[in-house]
Amino acid sequence: MATIELKDVRKVYGGNIEAIKGVSLDIADGEMIVLVGPSGCGKSTLLRMVAGLESITGGDVTIAGRRVNNLEPSERDIAMVFQNYALYPHMTVRQNLAYGLKNRNTPKDEIDRRITEAARALEIEQFLERKPRQLSGGQRQRVAMGRAIVRKPAAFLFDEPLSNLDAKLRVQMRVEIRRLQRSLATTSIYVTHDQMEAMTLADRLVVLNAGRIEQVGTPIELYEKPATTFVATFIGSPSMNLMRPTGNLGDLPNWSSNVATIGVRPEDFVIADATSIHGFRTKVEVMAVELVGAESYVHGAAEDGSTVIFRVAGRSAIAIGETLQLTAPADRFHLFDADGRRIQS
Ligand SMILES: Nc1ncnc2c1ncn2[C@@H]1O[C@H](COP(=O)(O)OP(=O)(O)O)[C@@H](O)[C@H]1O
Ligand SMILES: [Mg+2]
Known about the structure:
By secondary structure, the protein is α+β, with helices and mostly antiparallel strands. The protein is built from 8 helices and 18 strands. The strands form 4 sheets. Strands 6-7-8-3-9-10 form a 6-stranded mixed sheet, sandwiched between helices. Strands 13-17-14-15-16 form a 5-stranded antiparallel sheet, with no helix packed on it. A hairpin with a 3-residue loop joins β14 (282-291) and β15 (295-302). α2 (93-103) packs parallel to α4. It starts with a strand and ends in a 9-residue tail after the last strand. Bound molecules: adenosine-5'-diphosphate and magnesium ion (MG). Magnesium ion binds at residues 43-44.
């Protein structure tokens, strides 16, 4: 059990590639933090600096109150779960689970006890005598988790552990990791580029963009109050629609003359009628209608030249070529200035 603190952490590769540009973050004991952002934004670099797999160019990393900048990975009391399971192919599951503990001279009966406990939690008891190649991808992923669990580390670090799995299994494992992390209450940092995985796993999300934190908050805070247009479009699928302001906007809450961008989530658009009270509407010509099961996504060309997507429940009666007037409830508009920063509401 441990807190993790990052204080103005920086990473420069090869003297000139600034991968992390000053990141500060306090992670609470037992908290599940998800680092999310597009490929190349620095997620793995930051995680590897916490793990001790990458040197720290500047700032401090503290685990359980101890500055770990100059400690070896093995001295940091953390366990890392990678996307390639990194199981030893010639060893059984039991031997794979025992390996790290043996290296630390853990007594045999303690090893057995921990393996039994972890195998039960992960429901892999019946596979303990098998070799990794005799397991499915999901089972191997569980063994990889098991190796982290038996160590009873101060923190778990995950680097895109599910990205090799097919979509259905990924959802299952995501639920399982969430359940395990909650029941073990071990401080965790989980890296993913998948915003859906991030939303469902995180106590708090950290959105990284080009080596800097864009925003930190609970999934719902980031969804409802994205601090920047980057977060607004990164979190949520389909993405938030961003439009240039047109029409009479004066009666939008928080309206100010420096509004450069108006954001509306696809589920918040409504078709305008005579009773729509406030000013923002956009005329949209329907270009495509996608039925995706329980709902449909309507794609249209808006007046300002942008493409907008809105969601309708079930099968849509809207036809391609139709022109619609779209608006949204007054409290569902997100307003941003010319720098892409939220105008607070
Ligand atoms: N060993 C390295 N040497 C030089 N540049 C690197 C190295 N590892 C990562 N980078 C660069 O640092 C940036 C962040 O990479 P990374 O942390 O792997 O991003 P992410 O995990 O978010 O995809 C990228 O621009 C990447 O090219
Ligand atoms: Mg990465």
